[in-house]
Specification:
Order of helices and strands: HHEEHEEEEEE
Oligomer: single chain
Helix content: 25-40%
Shape: elongated
CATH superfamily: minor pseudopilin epsh domain
Distance between the termini: 67 Å
Largest sheet: 4 strands, antiparallel
Strand order of the largest sheet: 3-2-1-5
Number of domains: 1
CATH architecture: 3-Layer(bab) Sandwich
Radius of gyration: 25 Å
Number of helices: 3
CATH topology: minor pseudopilin epsh fold
CATH class: Alpha Beta
Length: about 180
């Protein structure tokens, strides 16, 4: 006679449930930390992409481009570094230096709940200059593809750790650090 087993005992079921509870307890903090940094990573990627775009346009058009932020908001702006693009009148000509290609002028925002925080570098010098409105200019890309000087911006969300994004002037390399 064969003894066929058709179910599981209560003890076996409790052991499996205990293993699942322990695995969930270990995984939950890791999953929260991964999902909590997603908006910060998205914000860093957005800024890095705009920096790359401004840098390439500065080289292509042979004129400096400015990346500016409004502190304590998520707003930023990329435009040529000349007064007609920053005096608040929007009277800039839509035609570029070559007569056909319009200059890059972008106003955008970070992902929801992300904002630019005050930077210790935001005082004095070209990096901290402000123009009409509340624009603070952390980065200017020159026609040779470099930034005018090393710069950093800090951004974060409510209750989270801020993220620092730095750019090296000579190389244009952007790095992030918590």
């Amino acid at each position: 006679m064969r003894n066929h087993r058709r179910g599981v005992s209560l003890f076996e079921m409790i052991v499996v449930l205990a293993i699942l509870v322990i695995a969930a307890a270990i995984a939950t903090p890791t999953l929260r930390s991964i999902s909590g940094s997603t908006p910060l990573n998205a914000a860093a990627d957005t800024v890095k992409a705009r920096w790359a775009e401004a840098r390439s346009r500065a080289v292509a058009e042979g004129r400096p481009y400015r990346f500016a932020v409004m502190e304590n908001t998520g707003k930023f702006r990329v435009a040529p570094d000349s007064p007609e693009f920053w005096d608040g009148t929007d009277s800039a000509s839509p035609v570029g230096n070559d007569g056909t290609r319009p200059p890059l002028v972008v106003e955008d925002k970070l992902p929801p709940e992300m904002r630019f925080l005050s930077s210790p570098d935001a005082s004095g010098g070209p990096q901290g200059q402000t123009d009409s409105g509340d624009w603070s200019c952390p980065v200017v890309f020159t026609p040779d593809g470099n930034a005018q000087q090393d710069a950093q911006i800090i951004f974060g969300g409510e209750g989270g750790k801020p993220l620092v994004l730095r750019i090296r002037a000579a190389t244009g390399v952007a790095t992030t650090s918590p």
